[in-house]
């Protein structure tokens, strides 16, 4: 059995960021083999992840990056169980590491991003598992990317909500400023789609049936139910689709009108909204 010194423990701690006692235990189990000890610590993190798989992750941190030419945006959100963990330096450093990896590799999906191998030989998934072992909480990653003529971003003041929004026909308008206003709208009003054409058919059918049932409960004639339901559907579009919503900063105009006032024909082609714990 190899003799485990304080220097050995400190070295492993520096390598992994794990606690002193965890490092000593891993080195003892690995008979002084540092790589084997790192594997032991990683397996311990995976055990914690498996054990806490059903736990709720309502805290965390969101980070975004938009390319220099403004045509692509990437957003990562790492969720955890408690607010205190969300504020720890190594948690936020991991969020930045993940975002940097997304930008560097132009990862298309979450699965692609998790598989990215860093210079230290570990994948992003392994880095997440390692941190799980250190903090003892479930961590959950969300990743979205968006491409457009111009992409703008916004992170809410609580650092738990973020938006990417793609604009078209920007012209000479300040895309970042206009996009920020639209993104703030998306955070606040939670639209389900850009406009009515983006609402899926199942949602449309459900809203029509709800409208009919409400009208029927109010005693309206059967012959009028379809017309009444269509009226309620139009109200749904106005309240729940981005371009038709009233601008929260100025209720006298819709988002579509706001965009057109900044640059003729400007519109939103797509958006991504991420919220931790909501």
From TrEMBL:
PROSITE patterns: EF_TS_1. CDD domains: UBA_EF-Ts. Keywords: Cytoplasm, Elongation factor, Protein biosynthesis. It comes from the Bacteria. Gene3D superfamilies: 1.10.286.20, DNA helicase RuvA subunit, C-terminal domain, Elongation factor Ts, dimerisation domain. One of its GO terms (molecular function) is translation elongation factor activity. Associates with the EF-Tu.GDP complex and induces the exchange of GDP to GTP. It remains bound to the aminoacyl-tRNA.EF-Tu.GTP complex up to the GTP hydrolysis stage on the ribosome. PANTHER family: ELONGATION FACTOR TS, ELONGATION FACTOR TS, MITOCHONDRIAL. Belongs to the EF-Ts family. NCBIfam families: tsf (TIGR00116). This is Elongation factor Ts. The gene is tsf.
């Amino acid at each position: 059995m190899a003799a485990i010194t304080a220097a050995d423990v400190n070295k492993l701690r520096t390598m992994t960021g794990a606690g002193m006692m965890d490092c000593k235990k891993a080195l003892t189990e690995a008979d002084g083999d540092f790589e084997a000890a790192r594997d032991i610590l990683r397996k311990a993190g995976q055990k914690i992840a498996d054990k806490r798989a059903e736990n709720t992750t309502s805290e965390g941190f969101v980070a975004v990056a938009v390319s220099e030419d403004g045509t692509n945006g990437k957003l990562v959100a790492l969720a955890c169980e408690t607010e205190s963990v969300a504020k720890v330096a190594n948690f936020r450093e991991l969020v930045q590491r993940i975002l940097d990896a997304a930008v560097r590799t132009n990862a298309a999906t979450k699965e692609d991003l998790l598989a990215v191998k860093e210079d230290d030989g570990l994948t992003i998934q392994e880095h997440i598992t390692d941190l799980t072992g250190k903090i003892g909480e479930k961590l959950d990653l969300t990743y979205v990317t968006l491409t457009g003529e111009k992409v703008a971003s916004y992170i809410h003041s609580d650092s738990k909500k973020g938006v990417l929004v793609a604009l078209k026909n920007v012209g000479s308008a300040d895309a970042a400023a206009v996009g920020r206003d639209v993104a703030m709208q998306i955070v606040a009003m939670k639209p389900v789609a850009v406009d009515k054409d983006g609402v899926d058919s199942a949602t449309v059918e459900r809203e029509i049936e709800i409208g009919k049932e409400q009208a029927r409960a109010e005693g309206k004639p059967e012959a009028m139910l379809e017309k009444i339901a269509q009226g309620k559907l139009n109200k749904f579009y106005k309240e729940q689709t981005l371009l038709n919503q009233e601008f929260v900063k100025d209720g006298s105009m819709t988002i579509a009108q706001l965009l057109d006032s900044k640059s003729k024909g400007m519109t939103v082609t797509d958006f991504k909204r991420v919220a931790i714990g909501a």
